[in-house]
């Protein structure tokens, strides 16, 4: 086998572990054909991923409102939803669910700026960040004790989910749930679209993500630094590596930084990568000296 393709396949198998590990039993309670009441959902951070999720939520009949540091009022107007600049007003708008779609690096500052005393009811808070222990800990420390918390990671985005979410994975952990009806209604957003509903702890997620998502981003960033480009004699293995490089290039370096800084397992994976690279290099050099 092409050695490059062999390396790529090993990384692919690790990614499949995260996507397919311990998929929950059939979610009959979430995918039931019984009508589900529309939820009042407030979204904090209305970048491309939040906009992508919002389109499906609107289609399902949920009532959406958004806030963000940047001005997305025109985009929200096109979607037919309110954009609320003032955080006090946003939290007073009777949300049943507050969905945090901020960047990893900005989460702490955003949460610190939230006037939780403005909440009108016990509220379910959810996040969609690519690391899970960090937002869990930040939110548990800041949220009012009567607020519920579910941590989620949709293992897809605007590109992979552009033709629908069927078969794509949503990881989640019910960290603190009292209102099961609202929590089930939120999860139903993904289950009803055919997502694989994968329940696991935030710690387990971060262990696996360090071995798959972070490692993929690391390799892609290295290849980008090498400025690799297609050649007339590319193998299939190289084509796959180039796809990794191009895919990672579409994400910000802040995301990569967040995957490293706020996933405690990523540091060991970076060390493992360095040790493995040095081991391969030394084997080559030893053969040269034989």
UniProtKB/TrEMBL annotation:
Give one Pfam family.
TYRAAT1_C
Q: Please list the coiled coil stretches.
A: none
Keyword Oxidoreductase among record annotations: yes
| Domain of life where this protein originates | Eukaryota
Q: Which organism is it from?
A: Coffea arabica (Arabian coffee)
User: Where does the Prephenate/arogenate dehydrogenase domain start and stop, copy by copy?
Assistant: 39-290
Swiss-Prot/TrEMBL keywords: Oxidoreductase
The identity of this protein, by name, is Arogenate dehydrogenase 1, chloroplastic-like isoform X2
Asked if Oxidoreductase is a keyword of the record, the answer is yes
């Amino acid at each position: 086998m092409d050695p490059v393709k062999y390396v790529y396949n090993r990384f692919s198998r690790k990614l499949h572990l995260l996507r397919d590990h311990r998929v929950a039993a059939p979610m009959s309670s979430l995918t039931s054909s019984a009508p589900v009441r529309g939820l009042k959902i407030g979204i904090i951070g209305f970048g491309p991923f939040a906009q992508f999720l919002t389109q499906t939520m609107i289609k399902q009949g949920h009532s959406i409102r958004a806030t963000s540091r940047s001005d997305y009022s025109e985009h929200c107007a096109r979607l037919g939803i309110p954009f609320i600049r003032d955080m006090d007003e946003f939290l007073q708008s009777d949300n049943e669910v507050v969905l945090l779609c901020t960047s990893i690096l900005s989460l702490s500052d955003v949460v610190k700026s939230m006037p939780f005393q403005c909440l009108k009811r016990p509220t379910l808070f959810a996040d969609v960040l690519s690391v899970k222990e960090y937002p869990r800990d930040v939110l548990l420390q800041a949220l009012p004790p009567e607020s519920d918390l579910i941590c989620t990671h949709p293992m897809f985005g605007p590109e992979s989910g552009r033709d629908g979410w069927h078969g794509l994975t949503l990881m989640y952990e019910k960290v603190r749930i009292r209102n099961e009806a609202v929590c089930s209604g939120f999860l139903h957003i993904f289950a009803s679209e055919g997502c694989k509903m994968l329940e696991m702890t935030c710690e387990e997620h971060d262990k696996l993500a360090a071995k798959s998502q972070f490692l993929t981003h690391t390799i892609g960033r290295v290849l980008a630094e090498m400025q690799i480009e297609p050649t007339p004699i590319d193998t299939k293995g190289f084509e796959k590596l180039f796809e990794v490089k191009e895919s990672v290039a579409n994400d910000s370096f802040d995301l990569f930084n967040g995957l490293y800084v706020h996933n405690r397992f990523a540091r060991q994976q970076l060390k493992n990568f360095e040790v493995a690279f040095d081991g391969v290099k030394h084997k080559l050099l030893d053969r040269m000296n034989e």
